[in-house]
Amino acid sequence: MDCESADGLDESGLAGSRCYSAQTHCSNGQKSKRPSSPGPHPVKTTCVDSHPQNPNVALCLSISPGKDVSSTNDVEMLSPDSPISKTVLIDSSAHKDQDDSTCAEDFEAQVVKSQQFFNNSESGSFGKKRLQVVSMGTEDAEVAECSGSSNMSQDFIRSQPDEIFESISFASHDPEQRWLGTPIDELNRMPQCAPPLSQLKALANHTVTVRTDLLREGEVPVPYPTKFKDVWDDMSVKMPSALQDGGGVQSRWDLIHNALRGGFKSSLDLRDAILRYNTTHAKKWDFTALNLLCTECLEHCEVQQLFQAILPAMVDLALSAPCLCTMPIPLLKSRVNHSLTLSQEQIACLLANAFFCTFPRRNSRKSEYGNYPEINFYRLFEGSSQRKIEKLKTLLCYFRRVTQTKPKGLVTFTRQILNKAPNWESCQTQLTRLHITCEGTIEDNGYGMLQVDFANRFVGGGVTGHGLVQEEIRFVINPELIVSRLFTEALEYNECLIITGTEQYSKYTGYAESYKWKESYTDETPRDDWQRRCTEIVAIDALKYRHFLEQFLPEKMTRELNKAYCGFFRSNANNIHLSAVATGNWGCGAFGGDTRLKALIQMMAAAEAGRDVAYFTFGDLQLMRDVHKMHNFLTDRQVTVGQLYSLLNQYSDTVCRNCHTARPDVSLYNFIYEKISSPATANASEPDKDSGISSVMSDFC
Questions:
Q1: pTM of the entire predicted model
Q2: Confidence category of residue 173, pLDDT binned at 50, 70, 90
Q3: What is the tens place of the pLDDT at every residue in 119-140?
Q4: Where is this region: Disordered (predicted)?
Q5: Is 272 a catalytic residue?
Q6: Binding site for substrate: residue ranges?
Q7: Which residues contact 494 (CB under 8 A, 6 or more apart)?
Q8: 481: Cβ contacts below 8 Å, ≥ 6 apart
Q9: Which residue in 471, 480, 489, 528 is the catalytic one?
Q10: What torsion, rounded to 10 degrees, do the Cα atoms 511, 512, 514, 515 define?
């Protein structure tokens, strides 16, 4: 490849390409220029078990227009539990359970070996050497997804009546159909469905860190107040630029300033600079991944550009904190509803400080911030995992972009608490519309919708460590999400985090071990009147189960319903102004969730919140068919959310409670089909107390 050296940040980027063009702005109301939906024009995808790894895993931080990295070998992100090559056989004969192994217990001792889906072609890679070392670390097991068996086996039918088979027959499905239900383009999206915004202003429950009176389209927001307000208390983020540390002694800021201004010629220089103001960790922190990136994975000219242009610009950005982040940043504490609006430039400054590990008292779980996620990037630099190499490439692409061209928008972070949950058993709402597809991704095809982050209660999960599944991938391609870890306390059972306005800076291929940074991405999502991208992401954390049957306990199902509803509902909102929910296999994989139960729970919560659903199965064709069939079955019979909730509890009480095996003989969906289709139910004028059918079933007579 041709490389050019550069003394500054110009259009050449790392490798002399001109792909990092200025971001294109879309006016309010304009439909964002995203990939077409899988609705009327489904994308043809070939699902295979695996591909050999590309020997050239290193990618430069820019991409030449002459190099086409897209190819027919590229595939969408797939859930690790997607049974790509499996066929569900509807048969009444006995069978072997295909999911005896679970990953909730022994995942910590393994490296995730998910399906290999990345591109075979040379066009997506620019580096020169293949890194062979794979980390065996266990630190992020709690936030990783499992690549083991799927939850499909619960829907094998062992001894159901023939008429039940007929009611759920898959024979009528077109094997080439890649989506079912309502066409996705008929679902609500932002900004088209959004009501007019009130004027942005600071309130008691909303902190705004810019001059709202000077907010203009296409202009960089002005920080507020003008001068840095030095605060060191328990209600605000402790900034590295604080002049006092609370004890009357001078802060580390001068030391940080001197260390970073010394310049770097190698990764060892960068390591030494960071350790100068983190001396207590000098013998613990490991910079292997950073060193491998610079010595094994980048071309010589790319390394030069990194140390001569990108890192110096990042230093300038980090050290501008007293000028950019002038207002104390409030902590979004548990049990407190509060919103925080920052400029994208302020976020870039904070993330540059996170990269250089400058935030005080944030390097130990035993500190006062023990109930907050990690923010300093030191764990991202350690070990020899290829995952971390690819994450660093993705993040350096972001830093290159924001140091070259100042971002001009705002981002709002809202901690929302569900103070009063619905009485689920009495809910009279019926299920809303469903679009379900085995192709596409939440971020691409769910643009303008409320996009679900399958979150850890410590938002971002293992993004600064080893994790690299749904949540972590979203956080690295939209790096402004990462700053939420600076101020968001761990989520409680009735809380969620809503982030509006983040921008996507990178494209990627693969998932977990197969993840690869692909290229820079120009986000053309339109902005609202507050100059936020119309990208709304909600972080909701699912429960983790040790045993499959645990999730069917009534209190567990209710907790998940309340958590999803907390993320989906908006107080005093008119349903016509609510975008659809774009979601998928939330809480499945390593967390042990059953995909079919979780799909029902999310559809119920969305219905009660007044939203339609766009569901992405990440390649799972059978799940797409099963959920669509169930949705049609329930809506055709006008089953309410309350009635469905009672059926879930019946299943727990009559099937799961008496089950002495790892999984019940009767699947959840077939239990529901049988109960609603049962002749005893259809013909009864009153519920038979001895029949095992709850009084709720009388509503179907």
A1: 0.77
A2: low
A3: 333 333 333 333 333 333 334 4
A4: 23-50, 681-701
A5: no
A6: 456, 470, 511
A7: 417, 418, 419, 421, 562, 563, 566
A8: 453, 459, 460, 474, 475, 499, 502, 537
A9: 471
A10: 70
